[in-house]
Amino acid sequence: MKRFLLVLPVAAFGLLLASCGPRERIVEDPLIEVSNTTTLDIVKVALCDTATLLDIEARYIPNYWIRIVHDAYLQSGDRKYALTGAEGITPDSLFWMPESGRASFRLIFEPLPVRAQSFDFIESDCDDCFKLYGIDLTGKTSYETPRDLPSEVLVEPADNAFCEPVFEVGETTVRMHLIGYREGLGKRVELYVNTMFGTQKTYTSEVDPATAIATFRFDQYGTAYAFGGLGTSISASFWTAPGETIDVYTDLRSSGVRLVSRRRNADIALRTCYTNGTYAELNAIINASPAYGGFVSMDLWTGEFADYRMTADEYVTMVCDKYRTLADSIAQSGAPRAVQRLQLNDLRQETFAAFAEATLLLEHNYRHVHNLWDYRRPIDYRFAPFEPRHYAEVCKLFDINDPTLLVGSNTGDYVGAVCSPTVDWPAIAGLTEGIIPDLRTVSGMLEKVDNNALTDEDFATLRAMKNPFYAEAFETMQARVREALAEAESKAVIEPTPDVPLADLFDAIIAPYRGKVILVDFWNTWCGPCRMALRAIEPAKSGELNSDDLVWLYIANESSPIVTYKTMIPEIRGKHFRLNSEQWSYLCEKFKIDGIPSYVVVDRDGSYRLRNDLRDHSAMISTLRSMLE
Question: Which domains does the chain have, with CATH numbers?
Fold first, then answer.
């Protein structure tokens, strides 16, 4: 039997509500426990004998579409309640968001039990479908503290807590307990670890559905800041010391809090993360919302931070004035001292980057003003030149060689500024030892170790450094890289790149597969959206897209570290090509690729074109299926 959906006009909807009679129950502004999306919010629920009506508020990118499928249902207890109608949206059709990025519509379902205390909204059972769990019908106005947490994670925020950097190496174990977990939210947790070297490592773990725990084990080099979770339900953020075993209880209700807070235009207090371990007190204070109070930022990359017409003296004065103003606002905020120290470190990291990246920030403003965002095209404008005396002004604001500057949310910016090849910070600040000389010494070795390219001279340099941490760290990294490479070597197959002129390169790559449908995926290992897309589409290769007439070609470049690349590609079914920078740049220009992942589809007759609409996985599947048919 087919299910027929009733799309009601506004007047009919009013009649339906009126027909509910005295047993009608209205719940406005309901709490939502967990959500896998910030696009949909249920702002009102009407329950009556004949139907359950949901008032939905949607927020999304202007002029982009969303879709509600006809398979949507509500669940309360063990029973599902089907979608029977809609007003303001047509199920299964594309709904284009207006310029405001906001829209409202209503969905109509079979009637829930009048005494139901909560329900779940499940758009469909697919991984990417909208899911909102635990929509409250009892009138609760606030979220309760989770029950049954172990005493060792119920640490109170300490006013004097601060994360002093630890220069050690060790294997860290993180057991992430997901409070409020539902299997429909996803099966994998991603953990992002910001390292002391200014890099970010990504780790993935399957969730044990019986315990709602995801376990991570990784080598850690110095104190690290980690954050992670399930898709948009990212809510755990914490500091961890190398070599420790830490339990992290992350409250997935933070995803529901985001929706309700936005709806009410007011912050709702919810401690999102509880931990034990070395930094339990610090983690308590940064997760005891709203105690942390968020970041105090210069907003360097809005395009409006600097005026490209500034002289170097004007730019330096502007940055120094902004720093002093924001530092004073932190001091006057009344926040706990530990919070103030973290915020001040964030600000100092950003300020240091503002000096090191001065010319780039002036260029960024120029591009913003003139709407010139293709960085491959040079700008015909002479920006103000900066001299050592200009850079030296930051040294008057704070100690740029302070090791605690490795602690903060902008550590990557700070380390990148330290290692700037255009600014000789040791000479400018008169430094012969400490964090800045050390990081500049090892900066070039990070890429080399990822490619198994460290030399005996590199290790001699490391062992001669005053701090033994660096030698131990890189020796451990090199050993792990070689282990991973040996394991992947027999599994990873990299196709030889055709030895042809650049103009013939793409045709030569696809030539062996002529007569078949070809999906060409431009990606790299360091691209988070690429990795997410790969995981999302891989199951379809053995399912609805399982066909000998469909070829998957993956093109990356040498910016993907060879060890990481060889470790990843055995899990990605298809043919893999790794291009040099010249070949990659040519193909990006040929297809006007604006970012990755990007997709080129080749038809059976050999014709091809860029198809970035296929970044929508459902569109990719339906398009390829129709081409195969």
Answer: 6-136 (no CATH), 151-287 (2.60.40), 300-431 (no CATH), 502-628 (3.40.30.10)
